[in-house]
Amino acid sequence: MILMLLMACNSIFGVANRVADPDNIIHGQEWFHQANENISARVSQIESSKTLSEGVTDPAELQRLRIELAGQQQSCRQLVADYNANGEKVTMGLFKGWSLPQSIDNSVCN
Hints:
Blueprint: H1 2-19, H2 22-54, H3 59-88, H4 90-93
């Protein structure tokens, strides 16, 4: 019983040391900032694609633009899901910082 308790404590301290490692902190902060910028860029692409398709009358071109838009929206949803999932992880969410949103709503991808 005591041996199991000691092993559990060593394991907990090992995880805590890895999480608090400066390289992991920097990586976590950089990941969230990069992910937030990637989402913003994807949202801009979606808005541009919508604007571009407004004046199109050729059915084939309109269909192509709609398929491209759907792909951009799905990519955006995946980026948002990754951001939110990592934000919920104790070992990653700690390093998000105050300047970034706590979570991002999927509706930004519509």
